[in-house]
Specification:
4-stranded parallel β-sheet, alpha/beta
Length: 115
């Protein structure tokens, strides 16, 4: 079942502080500062101060048409990275869409991670 939404963002960007500089200096300008701009949701600008991070993540992901996962080994080890991956999967199922998640591999990531 496809759920009809009015999205505020074209994409929610999920990343760790290690990828912050790349997201802010490379990704954002190339997507937001062009003629056919893409509206991104990024933590530093769009999260509501004082609101718990996990609530910000879920609320803002709901308002994004897609979820852009900036994947690195550090992202996979982050508890917030796990939350963002899980919610991205749930969003696909809830909205009945298979085009929700876009992964950007910043470096090689393991197929399976030892616990």
């Amino acid at each position: 079942m496809f759920v009809d939404h009015e999205y505020i963002y074209d994409a929610f960007v999920a990343y760790t502080s290690d990828e912050y500089e790349w997201v802010i200096r490379q990704l954002r300008p190339k997507l937001e500062l062009v003629e056919d701009a893409v509206r991104l949701c990024v933590h530093d600008r769009d999260f509501i101060p004082g609101k718990p991070i996990h609530e910000n993540i879920v609320d803002k992901m709901k308002k994004g048409c897609r979820i852009l996962l900036i994947m690195s080994p550090r992202f996979l080890k982050s508890p917030y990275g796990h939350l963002e991956i899980e919610y991205a999967g749930m969003k696909c199922l809830e909205e009945g869409r298979d085009d929700v998640i876009i992964c950007v591999l910043m470096e090689d990531v393991p197929v399976r991670q030892e616990r």
